[in-house]
Amino acid sequence: MKDWYNYSWSEVVRELNSNITYGLSMENVNQNREAFGDNKTLNLKSKSFIILFLRQLTKLYSISSILTSVLLFMALKIQMGIFMIIINLFCVTIYSLKNYKNENKLIYLRKITPDKALVIRDGSSISINADELVVGDIVYLEEGDIVPADVRLIECNNLRIKESAITGDNNIVEKYETKIEDSEISHSEMRNMAFRSSFVIEGTAKAIVVEVGENTQIGHIIKELIKDKAKKSSLEDKIVKLINSFSTIFIISFIGILIYSFLEKVNIIVNFKIIALAYLIMVPIQVIIIIMLISFIIYSKTKRKGINLGGLSYMETLSSTDVFIANKIGSITEERVFVKKIYTNGNILEARMEENQEDKHNIDRIISIGVLCNDSRLDVEGKIKKGDFIDRALVLYGKENSINKNILEQEQERILQLPFDYERKIKTTLNKVEDKYRANSIGSVDKLIERCTHIMKNGIEVEMTPQDIINIKRADLLLAKESLHVLGFAYRNFNYEPSINENIESNLVFVGLMGFENPCKENVINYMEYCRSLAIKPIIITDDNKITAQSIGESLKILNKNDMVLSGVEIDNMDDDELEKFVEKVGIYSRISSKIKSRICYQFKKLGYKVAVTGSRFTDLPSFKVSNIGIATGFNCTNIAKELGDIYVEDNDFKGILDLIKESRQFLKGIKNIILFNLIITLIEFISVVSSSILNNTITIGFKEIVLTNFVTVIITSFMIYSETKNIEGKSYEKVNIDKTIFHKFSSGIMFYIIFVAISCIGIYNFNKDINISLANISIFTILNLSLILFGFYFIKYKNVFKNKIASMLLVLNIMLYILFVQIFTGNCIEIFKEMFVNSKIIIGIILVQIPLINFIKELDDNSK
């Protein structure tokens, strides 16, 4: 952006070929649109649900399902064909809805962009769509407006704007039209500029548009958000990819069976049935349903805890966290501060001790400065309804010392305000005191004393000496070493009303320092040990100075032996290569901007770390997008951060988020076990049923039996496995990946079990088929169902099932449903059981031998890890 703030408004108007009275002509509008572009900042076009739905239908698993449904209809299995269509539509719809939600996530940004703008064109004031603005347009602003573009102010009438979307500062900024001489200033210091998506709180203005569209400051931010919109991998997509690999095998088998049928002139309808059966067995589409149901359970459970998950994929990403970056206040300290100590008259005093008369005048002046240079608001009952933690602490301390903010502000009316910003590190208000004026300033000690020429001693202003400066810095150091957040207090009297463009913050009178204590939460040291036990590097961001940060870091064990504290000022003078050398050695960052926060996240990612970062403001969004996962936190979190963050945690608690990371890792282990279980069952069914069907040239088990096995028994057993997620053994620092490495879990023991069950099914069918074909079918169904129920214990300890009420209930439900299914299929389950066990006593042996076999395989696999 050109430094428009360094130009007078008349120079800006002249350079952009505009006119403050007549505005732009339509010819100029078209020329400027061609030269500078239009004002369409938000390229937020999202795909419609229909497009996403159709795209999902083209996935291999969906095509296979549709193909199977067609074959079932051709084989006159109408009910099963309809069932397959319903299952496919359910899976496709669920995935389409998830993708549609992600596609439309950034649409929330439209809420901070205006629809209309009032401009002057061809000498007339007209209302146009904000997207139609061009550089050089003369616009009007008034109370309640959202600034429609980046503008240079021409005329202001008590204009006050909130620019939190751009600067991250929640303070209301007073604006003026005068040229600014300083160069290389921050956005918050550009008082003669207003930026798109800022809110006009009070007053009116006329301004000229200097930047539009993606060239606006908000445009730059949004462009980065859009660019990184699809950066995070999806757990659901990985599962679909896994299922698609089985669909590929199915399609190859489908083609092979068709060729075999053609060459051998086999009954094509019989082979259609075998192909359809092969799909039901080979493609574990039930996994999608299981994951979606678990997703709903997880979402409901975390919602009750005040956690809003964007999706299971974010839990997967969270589980792989190596670096956790959090703000100090709220995460490891309480969300409150209070005045602990005061320095004035050369003495450090306890804030709540009986002060002597010599100090009283100075202390009262410090309190008055703190109460007046303060953005908190009190209701009629005197309760604080607004303001940051420092502002609240100052008001409460004033109240304790009989200085009421509302009364004092009535006596000393505020005329204007210079809000705090990252560069100046000072905030100032100008108040009217009787018939004179006083500037009240609060800020960083180093920055403040640079602007002071005098000091108040015993209520009298005297010239500041070098020794005074040494004493002040020494006191600052002592307070900082006590882990106190230190601020300086100063003022300046005027016999006249200074204008906002005067250097009000000069020739100040230093009064004293205040040390604020931010109480730590209990067991913070344990939190740090807990964090490192999860193999996560904790990094804290604080607004304290470097010395205070060092003291806090050492006392709370945030800093390891070789860790260091790095300040924003130091990082400002580093390029990315220099920062990369330091980033792994830093445990605490002191007084950094949102831009630096993004740079830190980027450097960690560049080094291969998985980064989780917390934030609560719009300006934290770039950090969210640069990191692997962005966590919006706190009750005071802005709505836009909640919407665009990956996860929202209501209680900004360091341990709470670490618990969530640990639970995510346990959850991923549970999901991996469920997927592994389903794949093992798929192989058992494929080898036993498909092979025996091909060998016997007939369907050896009914479609309904397979559907009930896969979509009832398997799903219930999967939930039984999931119910034991918290009891899964393993090291807390172990990270879980769900990818093709899952096949590495197919140990020799598991493969032996698969072959054992498959051979049992084939053998029992051939043993019974000549006696009673229905008995043979039910025998396979029995072995498959009871085997997969028993194999669930590979992932669960037998003793835990009876301790876990949910697992016990699911186990009993599975067995009861098996009996019910047999009754439905045969019409007389008692008789069929008698016949099955009389004629096939071996079934009992097959089932019973699996109990010690599964336990042996589990112990063997556990010992081989």
TrEMBL record:
Domain Cation-transporting P-type ATPase N-terminal: 3-73
One of the record's GO molecular function terms: nucleotide binding
Keywords of the record: Cell membrane, Membrane, Transmembrane, Transmembrane helix
Gene Ontology cellular-component annotations: plasma membrane
GO BP, sorted A to Z: intracellular potassium ion homeostasis; intracellular sodium ion homeostasis; potassium ion import across plasma membrane; proton transmembrane transport; sodium ion export across plasma membrane
Pfam families attached to this UniProt entry: Cation_ATPase, Cation_ATPase_N, E1-E2_ATPase
TM ranges: 78-97, 239-262, 274-299, 674-695, 701-722, 742-765, 771-794, 806-825, 837-857
SUPFAM superfamilies: Calcium ATPase, transduction domain A (SSF81653), Calcium ATPase, transmembrane domain M (SSF81665), HAD-like (SSF56784), Metal cation-transporting ATPase, ATP-binding domain N (SSF81660)
Signal peptide (residue range): none
Protein topology in the membrane: Multi-pass membrane protein
Alphabetical list of PANTHER family matching this protein: CATION TRANSPORTING ATPASE, SODIUM/POTASSIUM-TRANSPORTING ATPASE SUBUNIT ALPHA
Family, similarity comment: Belongs to the cation transport ATPase (P-type) (TC 3.A.3) family. Type IIA subfamily.
Name under which the protein is recorded: Cation-transporting P-type ATPase
Species of origin: Clostridium botulinum C
